[in-house]
Write a structure and sequence with these properties.
The protein is of the alpha+beta class and 346 residues long. It has 2 domains: 232 residues, 3-Layer(aba) Sandwich (Rossmann fold); 106 residues, Nucleic acid-binding proteins (OB fold (Dihydrolipoamide Acetyltransferase, E2P)), CATH 2.40.50.140. 27% of the residues lie in helices and 37% in strands. It has a 6-stranded mixed sheet, with helices on both faces. A 5-stranded antiparallel sheet has the order 13-12-11-14-20. Strands 15-19-16-17-18 form a 5-stranded antiparallel sheet. A hairpin with a 2-residue loop joins strand 1 and strand 2. The longest helix is centred in the middle third of the chain and has 18 residues. It is elongated. Bound molecules: adenosine-5'-diphosphate (ADP) and magnesium ion.
Length: 346
């Protein structure tokens, strides 16, 4: 089911949680909403679900204007961060719950609901746990059951709000891969909310980066990482440094040094030069390079990160070097960006 979010605005007591958000989600796609806390991810998900209604704008499910429809009419499945399994029900009863509360005319027979629950337990790779209770399962297993319960109603769309957020790092990573494999099998149109960039970039077909109730960029992991559309996306994703520069006639200068980089069509005037630690190389002399003083050298797993201070205002730039190369770096160094990104200032 494709979903089209059209010019949505959502206010809570006049406070705009979403401003003019438009987004097309493709049928069968796994899309991640990524952004810091308070950026509007949950609000957008709840609007798609029908748990909230927009102040203005529309939501289409296929050709169908769903804007005023209820959760049941939209037929969506959810999973939230905190296990919402019913403690006093078995795993099979939990999975079958959405079917067992349907009106009599559309409710499957009890034996059929049990059969469906067993089938879903196979799908989520927990076969045979039908008769267990939630307390007998680990946190990761419970979230898989929550997903099976959401799938039991054969939803048109699956909506997941930080479903692995309460689990520890290792379990989260395993579940991330597991969910991707499950999605490749079932192909449900899925919207996955997370504030974890690694999770979003690894899991999703496309990532929607949000900040302050607006969409900053929609793209694949490569688009978001290599071609960030805005300063926010550049600095939110991965490690980055920024220095103020002046663009003039296609040339870029930092304070009084002309940098050996191309202005990439950026208009003349003040600009912001964004750099990533692994896109900076240390060079022998200062010609066209940025010179600075080494302040901090620290080991970060397989690499070494070096912080240098540059310019009169002592901006900090971070460089990444192989652990062996960076170890004894000190004093004045000259660095040259291999890749960079310029945005007009202001
Ligand atoms: P996220 O999920 O990205 O952390 P939310 O969508 O939960 O962000 O919230 C976006 C903004 O809307 C926040 O400033 C939040 O305080 C506000 N907000 C969310 N829900 C409500 C509500 N029911 N009433 C008032 N303000 C809300
Ligand atoms: Mg949220």
């Amino acid at each position: 089911m494709e979903i089209s979010v059209r010019s949505i605005r959502k206010e809570f007591d006049r406070y705009p949680a979403l401003h003019d958000v438009s987004l097309d989600i493709r049928s069968g796609e796994l899309i991640a909403l990524l952004g810091p806390s308070g950026s509007g991810k949950t609000t957008l998900l709840r609007l798609i679900a029908g748990l909230e209604f927009p102040t203005s704008g529309q939501i289409f499910f296929g050709m169908d204007d769903a804007s005023a429809k209820s959760v049941q009419e939209r037929n969506v499945g959810f999973v939230f961060q905190h296990y919402a399994l019913f403690k006093h029900m078995t795993i099979a009863e939990n999975i079958g719950f959405g079917l067992s509360v349907r009106p009599k005319a559309t409710r499957p027979a009890a034996a059929e609901i049990r059969r469906r629950a067993s089938e879903l337990l196979e799908l989520i790779q927990l076969p045979g746990l039908d008769k267990r209770f939630p307390r007998q399962l680990s946190g990761g297993q419970r979230q898989r059951v929550a997903l099976a319960r959401a799938l039991a109603i054969e939803p048109r769309v699956l909506l997941l709000d930080e479903p692995f957020g309460a689990l520890d790092a290792k379990v989260r990573k395993d579940l991330r891969r597991w969910l991707r494999e499950l999605h490749d099998k079932t192909k449900h149109t899925t919207v996955f909310v997370t504030h974890d960039q690694e999770e979003a970039l690894e899991l999703a077909d496309r990532v929607v980066v949000m900040s302050q109730g607006k969409i900053e960029q929609v793209g694949t992991a490569d688009d978001i990482y290599d071609r960030p559309a805005t300063p926010f996306v550049f600095s939110f994703i991965g490690e980055s440094s920024e220095i103020p520069v002046i663009v003039s006639g296609g040339r870029v200068s930092f304070e009084n040094t002309l940098l050996g980089i191309d202005a990439e069509g950026t208009a003349d005037g003040p600009a912001r030069l964004f750099l990533r630690p692994h896109d900076l190389e240390v060079v022998a002399n200062g010609g066209g390079a940025i010179s600075g003083e080494v302040m901090v050298v620290r080991r970060a797993g397989p690499v070494r990160l070096i912080e240098i201070e540059v310019g009169a205002a002592r901006h900090r730039i971070e460089i990444e070097l192989p652990a062996d190369d960076g170890e004894h770096l000190s004093g004045t160094v000259h660095v040259r960006p291999r890749r960079w990104r310029l945005f007009p200032a202001g």
